[in-house]
């Protein structure tokens, strides 16, 4: 870690900083002004500054003169400063003065542009359909109330919902957690990146960051270690469409829900086949019903650490109320979206959030070019845009009243 | 040789040092034996072994000690400790927030940059030490029985060293022998004090008579002297000979390290102090560290930042505790147990979290702030250095910033304390006119000639470049045109050398001789006087030929010839020939008088006649200002002086062979021919030189000077050799110098005295009124006195010349005492002083001279514009009052339109009364609109601070300065100043002085100067700038907030002590008004911006705490968080901080009022910090919540959400800087583009670099994905706009509605140049003002019609008391009325009324000018009297003079109004015969 690349990078940066400055000074010098014939040679840019610095820091009366004497033997150039635009601080410059001529048109332009963007965004956002299904079961009337007791294992419940119109595709399914602090600092630290990168050494001795989720009571290393992995969301969902009273399962696509780089670069399974061999001598996280190598036994590329659900979970949410991508509906006749009708959602309820006043929900949404439904940005643009316009009007009044009669 | 034993010697030395430490030496002296008697210089038996060797080491570090010592030093800065503490906190696992190594990076970077800088400096020091240590010198070797070459570092105390001409002294050496026949050694002390004139040092008296070469082997004496100290002007000790005889040693015997031996072929001495114990090294003080006002203010706000930080941390800790507490026992899955598996209590987590938050929020106290400020300051210094306008072509010197860290103080000055001579004036003394025997010779031609020089100055350069071939001037008397003279001088050197650099060097060479510019040298004689001189000398010649007694000469002619002889010989000028600079001209003639009676006898007992002379010259250098004002010595700025030396070194090597067999004969050809004009005079002070040159113009020229004789060449008479019996040198208490000579013509012992008129006129023998001669004398006396006053009124420096003839008996009597004094060991100086006083009595007045010290170019303009800039200017000078006042008028320091208060008191009580009266006067005149109440408060409390507390005024009102300044000038003399500076009176004095627009302190000593500055600085809490050029200004320069040295004529001491060294006074204008303003506003804005920037950035993280359970989690990646300051946002602000110009240079100079901006700290007021903080919090809210809402209900992950916030914050911060940037050069654009690019490049590289590193963020590929997200761009567009909208709106409205003066200045900049000129010339700048009815700035310029109202002070006013409420009050209604307030009639009436209440009923005063009104008033119990003279001064000013005669003879308050004819003063003088001071004053006022 100590020889991480930041160090080298930093050095490089320092050097570039210095050379940048010197280049600037040098540029200033090269642009020699008129009439400086006496001093033909181009000094090293840093020279003057260094001479200056020495004289400032070092000189003290008596010996200074002796030193200066010696120094002068080498330099014959007189003290005359360079007459360049840079040294004389006469670089051509734009001096904006916030006057009516600039400010008001600028404000109007910005305002109008923002209003335009805002309208576009707002319309886009309004087209996005969202359906949220809270299945926490906090209230007794909820269908999942029975499962909310942590003592009940392998509980399942069903939620029914109705779509009036076509839910345009592509539809994505999120699970959402509220009041869940995945961004808690210690929680976020509690993982071992090298372990998740497939480093077998760390299988034996997980990083201390994982503690107390690094070893179980019998000093067996936990793989994957850490609180983050340990607390992985493990509710599962099945969506059925009620067609003529019969349930027809809507195929959910679990591929590509995690970042491509996560699956292919950042996380790796140990280089052992079968995967289970790598996990010899380790135990599964305490909260996990099954070990990492059993997450998806059907698909090698979705098993172990590169299991998509695992990857999604491991990418910590920014805010305490968050959604995570669960599945996509892209297949078959649902490519265009979910048709209107009744649907049934079967939930296998394993994850308990009520102890910390959390909420769970399932969200069906379709996506636009700018992501999910979010009216805020459009409104923000509209507000800021109109503020600009209003300000420009205010300023126009101000200028008309005060500025213009003063022009004479 | 001894080099091998070096190391062991060193080891022993260090051992000895340790021993010495253990056992402090019992006695306070140092005993030096000759090393010649011991085998090894460091041997055990050598008594000198304890003393330091001559090896110097100025480095701070060794290889081993560098790291610990440097770190230790760096940790003296509190900020560094803080940052290291935070970085170390990261290593504690419970609280760590960042990767520990990463957290160390910034502080390590900062520390290592500083360390590298220190290392480099130290290396340079080491190299130069080495260079110096390895210089060669000749040391007597015991083994070789001869002088051998050794390195400097091998010289030990007790060694004999042989010094050759132009050699630099390796150590402090006691002079034992000199090749000079007079047993003198000349040294040049330029490296110590910058004075390039020669100083004489004498061989120790016991070795004086040694005729053969000094043989070290025969030396057996022991020297006992004082411990090493840093006083260059003191050395005391004894030399104890084997015989037991003791001889005293003085500073004249000591040659100091670093000086150069001149004019002396060879000298031998014994090393007394070596290495670090030499006086030169002990005087080495490192650069001082000053902290600027802005920085002090900044530190307060840094402290506030710490408070904010702690509050934030506390808040977060509390929040975290609560957050944890709410879950109770039901621990949620996302709350992690402690590593031990135990559950932390809410309290403990809160405590841990507090520490974590300190780490996370550390950016709030910006680590880069201090570094950035230093970088910006260095750049500012660089630009100031580079300014062409501050470069003086003539001396090839530019401004030097010697203090790095107070550039911005230049923009905040409120008081300027200036020296006069050499600072305001050129310190080029030019002889202007003289009066001899009561007849004035106006020297009109001379005046015309001088006037021509001014015109030529501009043309000269052209001539230079053409390299004309004008013929050389070959006669002193060819004075047709100064232009020819000047040109020939410049072209001569130019032609010879060709290249520019060489020309420069040549010109420096020609400057070798002090005070010998053509202007000073060539004096056009007054034809009338010239005739008389010729007549006189021809008569003398005739009489000598006919052996007639000289007394037959008419007395006026006699006076004339004596006058010129006095001018020529009564000085310490050394003559050298031009082709052989630094080689004394020796003209030794056989003494004409064959009979040597008493003289011979005397001579035997006066081995050192010069001692008193040189003694006092040393003290004069200290107290120079207090008497002559300028007995100064030529010097040059450091660069030049070193260059000079360099040349000399080169020269000497080539010249050495040519001159080494030193021919002590004077070139015969030169004598008697006009070629003598080529002789160079090296004078200690410029006015001495001026007088000698003046005498030479009358063909009365000094040809040679030896310790015992002076040779003068007179017309017709040829060379006359005066036997020099004594020189009683100049000193500041006597204010005169005398020479005792034997006149070769009359064979009489004659004393010639030259000195300040105030002292000489007292010593003139009172003429007996009986005979005609006495009447004539009296007439001469009064005439001379009136001419002296005239001269003083013209601003000339006056000197009186007098003589006295001693009878042999008188002389013998005096001599006896004098010899006793000279040989006395205890209190020698005092005895010599008394002896001199005894001699200088009953003088015969010969005449007086007027010497002009010309004002430097542009001084009046500079003072005027500095004053317009709201700066109070005080001039502290050693000159006498009249001269000072006139110079003050000449340089517009005093304004004819304004009143002048003159304070002269002779006692503490008198001073107290004077001050009180002045206070009443001022108060009555300017304050007392509301009658009694204010009077009472004022009386009860002289401390001005409660009357108008500066703090409240400065913040609440829009006044230009903290207090009220009136159109009043204050003149105070040194004696009164001494009383006024007393603890009991200083508040009163300040109360008076602060309300005066300008203050002039005359006759002030260096100590007083510094006391005044200190007083003003400490009591008024204002920013002070002291500017001076001489050694007498050093203390003042050091005391002031900013010390400026003029690297002009008087040596380097002022420059060495200063923070900034200017070649000329007028550069002060640009330095303060332009650079000061820029530096201040740049830095102030940058600091504010810094605070804003960090607060804004950190606050976003703070807001996030509300959404992460106050867990100390940051959505901004640790890299961004740590490097944000150091990298991403560092450059633009540096560029802006370095290059931004709020107002153009031209406008700043033309509109000095803009300087008030800095004086009142308007760019950075305390509230601005909070405004910025509020703005920062607002902006951070916007920057946080726009992304927050934009990403609610999305599946965004922590850092995908945090990175846009970083980017947004960066954009906002940069655009914010853009709003604050006033000038956009390509560098600004570039730096901003660079910052943005850098952020993205770094982010992209960082996010692509390592998939598993950088826990906990693992930002792998985040940025890359973000760049594909349209939302990111949308956020980056709207957030900065929304965040900066208020500020932008405010700024643009402010520019229109209530523009600050600076903004008005900027608007002015935008106008076309001719329009701008028109507006400025109107000086009632209206721009942007119609919106601001009460802009204080504009009202400043309004020329008040009432100013012209001349009102005579004591005029009885018919309307008195009427409408006194209409006297301007200081409400904000009339800010214009407060500053330049003209005395209005109501004010005066109120004063009269007040004074009448205080004393008694005033009689109605006549308004006629020619009346002298006397009014007797009882003044409490004090037996004092005061003179209040209100006269129209030379300049027709109403002024009050408050003079208190010391004797209290007449108890009266005298209101005097004297006439133009002026001689009414005669009878005023009579009662106070002893106090000529008053006479002078009265005379002066009469004129």
Give an overview in words:
The complex is a heterodimer of chains A (408) and B (1487). Chain A has 12 helices and 10 strands. The N and C termini of chain A lie far apart (69 Å). Chain A is of the alpha+beta class. The model of chain A is unreliable at 1-76 (pLDDT under 50). Chain A has helices at residues 5-30, 45-58, 61-74, 100-127, 185-189, 193-196, 201-204, 227-230, 260-266, 275-278, 308-314, 375-403; strands at residues 130-134, 155-163, 167-168, 171-178, 236-243, 246-249, 322-329, 337-338, 341-349, 359-366. A 4-stranded antiparallel beta sheet of chain A has the order 1-10-4-7. In chain A, strands 2-9-5-6 form a 4-stranded antiparallel beta sheet, with no helix packed on it. With 1487 residues, chain B is of the alpha+beta class. In chain B, the strands form 6 sheets. Chain B has a 12-stranded mixed beta sheet with strand order 14-33-32-31-15-27-30-29-28-35-34-36, sandwiched between helices. Chain B has a 9-stranded antiparallel beta sheet with strand order 17-16-26-25-24-23-22-21-20, sandwiched between helices. Chain B has a 6-stranded antiparallel beta sheet with strand order 3-2-4-13-5-11, with no helix packed on it. In chain B, helix 21 runs parallel beside helix 25 (881-890). Mean pLDDT of chain B is 71; it is low at 1-26, 457-516, 580-677, 928-963 and 1323-1487. The chains are: A alpha+beta (408), B alpha+beta (1487). At the A-B interface, helix 1, helix 2, helix 3, helix 4 and helix 5 of A face helix 4, helix 5, helix 9, strand 14 and helix 12 of B.
Topology, please?
The complex is a heterodimer of chains A (408) and B (1487).
Chain A: H1 5-30, H2 45-58, H3 61-74, H4 100-127, E1 130-134, E2 155-163, E3 167-168, E4 171-178, H5 185-189, H6 193-196, H7 201-204, H8 227-230, E5 236-243, E6 246-249, H9 260-266, H10 275-278, H11 308-314, E7 322-329, E8 337-338, E9 341-349, E10 359-366, H12 375-403
Antiparallel strand pairs in A: 1-10, 2-9, 3-8, 4-7, 4-10, 5-6, 5-9
Chain B: H1 6-22, E1 29-32, H2 66-74, H3 78-89, H4 100-133, E2 136-141, E3 146-151, E4 160-164, E5 172-178, E6 184-188, H5 190-193, E7 198-202, E8 222-226, E9 237-240, E10 246-249, E11 254-255, E12 260-262, E13 266-273, H6 279-282, H7 293-327, H8 346-360, H9 367-386, E14 400-401, E15 415-418, E16 425-436, E17 439-441, H10 444-466, H11 482-497, H12 500-510, H13 518-521, H14 527-545, H15 555-569, E18 574-576, H16 598-605, H17 610-622, H18 638-659, E19 680-682, H19 686-697, E20 701-706, E21 709-714, E22 718-731, E23 736-742, E24 749-755, H20 757-763, H21 772-793, E25 796-806, H22 808-823, H23 828-839, E26 844-855, H24 859-868, E27 872-876, H25 881-890, E28 899-904, H26 908-927, H27 932-940, H28 944-947, H29 950-956, E29 966-972, H30 974-980, H31 986-994, E30 996-1001, H32 1006-1020, E31 1024-1028, H33 1034-1039, E32 1042-1046, H34 1053-1057, E33 1060-1062, H35 1067-1105, H36 1118-1128, H37 1130-1139, H38 1145-1150, H39 1156-1159, H40 1166-1191, H41 1198-1220, H42 1226-1249, H43 1262-1266, H44 1270-1297, H45 1301-1310, H46 1313-1322, H47 1336-1339, ...
Helix pairs in contact in B: 2-4, 3-4, 7-8, 7-35, 9-35, 9-37, 10-11, 11-12, 14-15, 15-19, 21-25, 22-23, 24-35, 26-31, 26-49, 35-37, 35-40, 35-41, 37-42, 40-41, 40-44, 41-44
């Amino acid at each position: 870690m100590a020889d991480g690349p930041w160090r080298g990078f930093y050095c490089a940066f320092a050097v570039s900083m210095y050379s940048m400055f010197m280049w600037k000074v040098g540029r200033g010098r090269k642009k020699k002004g008129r009439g400086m014939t006496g001093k033909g040679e181009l000094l090293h840019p840093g020279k003057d500054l260094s001479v200056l610095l020495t004289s400032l820091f070092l000189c003290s009366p008596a010996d200074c003169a002796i030193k200066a004497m010696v120094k002068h033997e080498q330099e014959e150039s007189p003290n005359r400063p360079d007459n360049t635009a840079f040294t004389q601080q006469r670089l051509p410059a734009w001096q904006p003065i916030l006057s009516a001529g600039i400010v008001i048109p600028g404000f109007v332009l910005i305002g109008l542009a923002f209003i335009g963007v805002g309208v576009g965004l707002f319309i886009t956002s309004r087209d996005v359909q969202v359906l949220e299904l809270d299945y926490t079961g906090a209230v007794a009337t909820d269908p999942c109330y029975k499962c909310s007791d942590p003592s009940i294992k392998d509980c399942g419940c069903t939620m029914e919902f109705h779509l009036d119109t076509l839910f345009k595709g592509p539809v994505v399914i999120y699970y959402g957690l509220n009041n869940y602090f995945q961004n808690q600092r210690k929680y976020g630290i509690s993982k071992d990146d090298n372990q998740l990168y497939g480093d077998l050494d760390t299988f034996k001795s997980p990083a201390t960051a994982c503690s107390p989720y690094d070893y179980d009571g019998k000093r067996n290393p936990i793989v994957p270690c850490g609180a983050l992995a340990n607390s992985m969301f493990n509710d599962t969902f099945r969506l059925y469409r009620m067609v003529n009273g019969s349930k027809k399962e809507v195929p959910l696509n679990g591929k590509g829900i995690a970042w491509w780089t996560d699956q292919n670069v950042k996380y790796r399974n140990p280089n052992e086949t079968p995967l289970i061999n790598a996990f010899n001598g380790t135990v599964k996280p305490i909260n996990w019903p099954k070990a990492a190598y059993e997450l998806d036994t059907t698909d090698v590329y979705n098993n172990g650490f590169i299991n998509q659900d695992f990857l999604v979970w491991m990418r910590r949410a920014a805010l305490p109320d968050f959604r995570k991508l669960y599945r996509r509906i892209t297949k078959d006749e649902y490519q265009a979206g979910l048709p209107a009708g009744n649907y049934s959602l079967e939930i296998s309820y394993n994850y308990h959030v009520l102890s910390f006043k959390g909420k769970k929900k399932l969200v069906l949404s379709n996506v636009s070019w700018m992501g999910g439904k979010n009216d805020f940005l459009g409104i923000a643009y509209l507000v800021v845009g109109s503020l600009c316009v209003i300000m420009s009007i205010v300023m126009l009044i101000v200028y008309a009243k005060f500025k213009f009669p003063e022009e004479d | 040789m001894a080099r091998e034993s070096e190391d062991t010697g060193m080891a022993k030395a260090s051992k000895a040092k340790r021993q010495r430490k253990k056992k402090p030496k019992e006695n306070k002296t140092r005993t030096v034996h000759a090393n010649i008697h011991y085998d090894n210089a460091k041997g055990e038996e050598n008594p000198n072994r304890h003393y330091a060797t001559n090896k110097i080491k100025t480095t701070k570090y060794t290889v081993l000690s560098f790291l610990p010592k440097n770190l230790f030093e760096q940790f003296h800065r509190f900020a560094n400790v803080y940052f290291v503490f935070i970085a170390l906190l990261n290593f504690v696992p419970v609280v760590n927030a960042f990767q520990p190594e990463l957290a160390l990076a910034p502080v390590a970077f900062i520390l290592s940059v500083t360390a590298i800088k220190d290392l480099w400096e130290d290396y340079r020091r080491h190299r130069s030490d080495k260079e110096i240590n390895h210089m060669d010198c000749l040391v007597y070797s015991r083994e070789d029985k001869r002088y051998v070459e050794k390195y400097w570092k091998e010289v030990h105390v007790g060694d004999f060293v042989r010094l050759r001409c132009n050699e630099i002294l390796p150590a402090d050496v006691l002079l034992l022998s000199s090749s000079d026949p007079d047993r003198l050694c000349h040294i040049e002390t330029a490296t110590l004090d910058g004075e390039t004139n020669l100083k004489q040092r004498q061989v120790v008296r016991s070795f004086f008579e040694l005729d053969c070469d000094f043989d070290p082997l025969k030396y057996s004496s022991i020297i006992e002297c004082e411990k090493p100290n840093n006083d260059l002007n003191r050395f005391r000790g004894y030399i104890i000979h084997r015989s037991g005889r003791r001889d005293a040693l003085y500073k004249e015997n000591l040659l100091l390290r670093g000086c150069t031996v001149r004019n002396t072929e060879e000298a031998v001495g014994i090393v007394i102090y070596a290495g670090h114990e030499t006086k030169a090294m002990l005087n080495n003080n490192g650069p001082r560290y000053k902290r600027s006002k802005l920085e002090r203010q900044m530190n307060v706000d840094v402290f506030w930042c710490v408070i904010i930080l702690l509050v934030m941390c506390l808040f977060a800790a509390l929040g975290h505790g609560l957050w944890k507490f709410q879950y109770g026992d039901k621990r949620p899955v996302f709350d992690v147990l402690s590593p031990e598996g135990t559950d932390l209590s809410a309290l403990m987590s809160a405590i841990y979290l507090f520490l974590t938050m300190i780490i996370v929020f550390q950016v709030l106290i910006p680590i880069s702030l201090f570094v950035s400020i230093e970088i910006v300051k260095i750049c500012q210094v660089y630009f100031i250095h580079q300014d062409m306008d501050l470069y003086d072509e003539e001396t090839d010197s530019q401004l030097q910033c010697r203090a790095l860290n107070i550039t911005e103080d230049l923009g905040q000055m409120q008081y300027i304390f200036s020296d006069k001579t050499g600072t305001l004036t050129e310190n080029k003394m030019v002889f202007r006119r003289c009066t001899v025997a009561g007849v004035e010779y106006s020297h009109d031609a001379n005046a015309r000639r001088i006037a021509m020089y001014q015109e030529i100055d501009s043309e000269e350069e052209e001539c230079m470049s053409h390299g004309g071939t004008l013929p050389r001037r070959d006669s002193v008397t060819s004075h047709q045109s100064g232009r020819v003279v000047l040109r020939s001088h410049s072209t001569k050197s130019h032609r010879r050398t060709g290249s520019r650099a060489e020309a420069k060097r040549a010109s420096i060479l020609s400057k070798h001789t002090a005070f010998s510019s053509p202007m000073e040298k060539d004096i056009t004689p007054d034809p009338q006087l010239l005739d008389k001189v010729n007549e006189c000398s021809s008569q003398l010649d005739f009489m000598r030929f006919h052996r007639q007694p000289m007394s037959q000469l008419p007395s006026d002619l006699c006076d004339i010839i004596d006058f010129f002889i006095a001018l020529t010989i009564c000085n310490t000028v050394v003559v050298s020939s031009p082709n052989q600079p630094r080689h004394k001209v020796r003209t030794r003639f056989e003494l004409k008088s064959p009979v040597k009676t008493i003289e011979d006898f005397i001579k035997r007992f006066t081995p050192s006649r010069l001692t008193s002379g040189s003694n006092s010259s040393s003290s004069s250098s200290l107290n120079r200002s207090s008497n002559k004002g300028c007995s100064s010595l030529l010097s040059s700025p450091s660069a030049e002086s070193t260059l000079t030396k360099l040349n000399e070194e080169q020269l000497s090597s080539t010249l050495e062979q040519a001159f080494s067999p030193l021919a002590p004969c004077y070139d015969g050809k030169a004598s008697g021919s006009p070629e003598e004009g080529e002789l160079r005079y090296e004078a200690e002070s410029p006015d001495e030189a001026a007088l000698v040159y003046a005498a030479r113009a009358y063909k009365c020229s000094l040809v040679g000077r030896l310790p015992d004789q002076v040779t003068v060449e007179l017309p017709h008479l040829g060379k006359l050799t005066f036997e020099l019996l004594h020189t009683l040198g100049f000193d500041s208490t006597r204010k005169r110098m005398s020479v005792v000579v034997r006149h070769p013509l009359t064979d009489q012992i004659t004393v010639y005295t030259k000195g300040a008129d105030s002292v000489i006129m007292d010593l003139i023998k009172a003429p007996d009124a009986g005979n005609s001669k006495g009447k004539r004398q009296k007439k001469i006396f009064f005439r001379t006195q009136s001419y002296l006053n005239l001269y003083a009124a013209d601003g000339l420096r006056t000197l009186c010349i007098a003589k006295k003839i001693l009878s042999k008996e008188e002389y013998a009597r005096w001599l006896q005492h004098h010899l006793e004094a000279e040989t006395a060991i205890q209190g020698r100086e005092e005895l010599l002083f008394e002896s001199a006083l005894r001699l200088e009595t009953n003088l015969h007045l010969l005449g007086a001279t007027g010497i002009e010290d010309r004002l430097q170019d542009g001084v009046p303009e500079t003072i005027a514009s500095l004053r317009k800039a709201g700066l109070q200017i005080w001039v502290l000078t050693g000159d006498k009052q009249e001269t000072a006042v006139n110079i003050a008028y000449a340089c517009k320091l005093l304004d004819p339109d304004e009143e002048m208060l003159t304070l002269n008191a002779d006692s503490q009580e008198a001073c107290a009364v004077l001050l009180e009266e002045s206070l009443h006067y001022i108060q009555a005149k300017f304050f007392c609109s509301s009658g009694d109440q204010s009077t009472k408060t004022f009386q009860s409390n002289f401390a001005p601070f409660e009357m108008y507390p500066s703090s409240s005024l400065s913040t609440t009102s829009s006044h230009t300065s903290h207090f009220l300044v009136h159109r009043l000038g204050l003149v105070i003399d040194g004696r009164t100043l001494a009383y006024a500076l007393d603890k009991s009176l200083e508040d009163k004095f300040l109360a008076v002085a602060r309300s005066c627009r300008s203050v002039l302190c005359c006759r002030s000593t260096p100590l007083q100067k510094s006391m005044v500055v200190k007083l003003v600085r400490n009591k008024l809490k204002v920013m002070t700038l002291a500017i001076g050029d001489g050694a007498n200004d050093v203390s003042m320069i050091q005391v002031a907030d900013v010390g400026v040295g003029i690297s002009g004529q008087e040596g380097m001491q002022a420059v060495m002590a200063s923070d900034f060294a200017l070649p000329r006074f007028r550069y002060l204008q640009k330095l303060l008004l332009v650079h000061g303003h820029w530096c201040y506003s740049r830095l102030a804005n940058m600091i504010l911006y810094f605070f804003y920037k960090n607060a804004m950035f950190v606050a976003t993280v703070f807001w996030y705490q509300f959404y992460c359970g106050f867990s100390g989690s940051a959505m901004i990646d640790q890299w961004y968080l740590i490097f944000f300051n150091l990298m991403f946002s560092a450059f633009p602000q540096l560029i802006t901080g370095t290059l931004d110009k709020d107002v153009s240079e031209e406008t700043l100079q033309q509109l000095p009022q803009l300087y008030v901006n800095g004086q009142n700290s308007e760019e950075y007021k305390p509230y601005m910090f909070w405004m910025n903080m509020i703005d920062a919090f607002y902006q951070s809210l916007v920057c946080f919540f726009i992304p927050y809402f934009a990403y609610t209900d999305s599946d965004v992950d922590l850092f995908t959400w945090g990175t846009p916030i970083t980017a947004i914050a960066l954009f906002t911060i940069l655009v914010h800087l853009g709003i604050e940037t006033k000038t956009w050069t390509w560098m600004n654009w570039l730096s901003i583009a660079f910052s943005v690019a850098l952020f993205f490049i770094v982010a992209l590289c960082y996010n692509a670099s390592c998939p598993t590193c950088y826990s906990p963020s693992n930002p792998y590929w985040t940025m890359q994905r973000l760049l594909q997200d349209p939302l990111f761009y949308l956020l980056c567009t709207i957030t900065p706009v929304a965040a900066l909208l208020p500020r932008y709106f405010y700024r643009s409205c402010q520019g229109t509605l209530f523009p600050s003066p600076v903004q008005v200045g900027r608007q002015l900049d935008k106008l076309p140049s001719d329009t701008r000129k028109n507006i400025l010339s109107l000086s009632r700048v209206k721009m942007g003002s119609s919106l601001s009815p009460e802009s204080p700035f504009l009202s400043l310029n309004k020329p008040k019609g009432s100013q012209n109202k001349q009102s005579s002070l004591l005029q009885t006013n018919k309307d008195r008391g009427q409408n006194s409420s209409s006297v301007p009050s200081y409400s904000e209604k009339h800010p214009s009325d407060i500053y330049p307030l003209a005395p209005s009639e109501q004010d005066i009436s109120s004063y009269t009324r007040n004074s009448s209440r205080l004393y008694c009923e005033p009689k109605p005063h006549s308004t006629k000018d020619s009346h002298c009104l006397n009014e007797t008033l009882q003044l409490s119990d004090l037996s004092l009297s005061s003179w209040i003279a209100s006269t129209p001064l030379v300049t027709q000013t109403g002024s009050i003079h408050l003079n208190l005669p010391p004797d209290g003879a007449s108890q009266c308050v005298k209101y005097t109004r004297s006439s133009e004819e002026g001689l009414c003063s005669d009878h005023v003088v009579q009662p106070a015969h002893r106090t000529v001071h008053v006479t002078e004053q009265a005379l002066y006022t009469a004129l």
